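note to self — DONT lose this again. spent like an hour looking for the file last time. sequence + predicted structure for the chain T wanted, 384 res
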Amino acid sequence: MIAPAGTDSPWMTDDTRIFQGTVRQFIAKELAPHQERWAEQGRPDPGAWVAAGKAGLLLPDVPEEYGGAGGTFAHEAIVIGELARAGIHIGFSVQSIVAHYILAYGNPEQKRRWLPRMASGELVGAIAMTEPDAGSDLQAMKTIGRKDGDHYVIRGSKTFITNGSQAGLICLAMRTDPQAVGPRALSLIVLETADLPGYQIGRPLQKLGRHTQDVCELFFDDVRVPVANLLGSGEGRGLFQLMDQLCYERLSIGLSAVAAAEAAVEITTRYVKERNAFGKPLLDLQNTRFKLAECKTEAHIGRVFIETCIQQFLVGKLDSVTAAMAKYWLTDRQFHIIDECVQLHGGYGYMQECPIGRMWADSRVQRIYGGSNEIMKELIGRSL
């Protein structure tokens, strides 16, 4: 059996092992029992965020002075890995991603204002980049922020926004110079959505998988946001900020891909030992053993690769090309492994109530968000 994510990792310490036990216990008690109901309603209960905050699962790698747990990415990696192994998708990683934009580019007042409430679960964060006509091509976005005195007046729309209907805080990418061509046209600004005139939440989007995860459209009809909410020292830094932080996001996606693939191999191994065909367990058939041998090998290679990436990130040496490699290759392998595991389950694997079937549907989007895998190959290709 493959060890739980992080168990034998070189970056594990006594502190992180204790934290891993806390995370695993919290997931089993506070999250797993509610998955069916949350899937029906299309989002977790608000109390799940507050409970996660109390347990230290939100912003574990943000400094204590800003309300975080004061850990490193090792702690975040444990949360990501344990959630992926349990097949739970409720937007905690997005919370961390938004927090790291604020941590990296916010001024001290912005950090003190927003991060503690995000760490406690009081504020749910979302990042709004994708538009109906602008996905991986960020420079094609049309949402505009026009400066009017000490406010920006924002008009436009965003789509596929995780945590969108729950978000009290949105990190928004917008064009602040509609005439500019190139990277300096974009800026990042933070919106507090409570009682915000002109801000509208669109319909919940009906996804193929990840039914517990809130994803929707957002609309901005002359929304006024203080200039003081801009992230960074001035306008035109948005694309550079997005590029700088994508290593964190892509590493997180790669890690979740490995953990899910490992879990799929474990689930399927148990199944083929118990399921009989032609008078003997499925595992006694050579094809079953060979397929699982291939899956386990690929999952193990993925684990070795992601552990190297995590170690590089912890010492500040993970480059954007390697992060792109991790995101592309590991999510591709995740879907391939889980698809093979569905096949070994036969008809049961295609049922919604079967864990491996849900994992298959949940895994497909990993190759799309965070930059499509085709874009990852383009980034890697440019480095040749």
